[in-house]
Write a structure and sequence with these properties.
Order of helices and strands: EEEEEH
Number of helices: 1
Strand content: 35-45%
Low-confidence stretches: none
Shape: globular
Largest sheet: 5 strands, mixed, barrel
Mean pLDDT: 90
Structural class: alpha+beta
């Protein structure tokens, strides 16, 4: 079993709001910003997203209002995130979305 993934440096927890097409999604991030995030080509056939999914967004260095989706959490993973200290961020995402 692989190690549990938490947001690292330059990454932020987010929740998918809507699909925009062409591998792009509107995501509300834990810092309160709404960003357009894209799903990289290497993950397009492996990771299927829908509105309401929790994801990790890696922010772009040159354009902070955009990013790449690098990980998707399952329902049970969201509970693990709450136990690991991200409960407030998840509550904020629920409130925003």
């Amino acid at each position: 079993m692989s190690e549990f993934r938490v947001p690292g440096e330059g990454e932020v927890l987010g929740k998918v709001l809507e699909m925009l097409g062409d591998g792009r999604f509107r995501v509300i991030c834990a810092d309160g910003e709404i960003r357009v995030a894209r799903l990289p080509g290497r993950l397009r056939k492996k990771l299927w997203l829908k509105a309401g999914d929790y994801v990790i967004v890696a922010l772009w260095d040159f354009e902070k209002d955009k990013g790449d989706i690098v990980h998707k959490y399952d329902k049970r993973d969201v509970e693990e995130l709450k136990r690991r200290g991200f409960a407030e961020a998840i509550e904020n995402l629920e409130r925003y979305a």
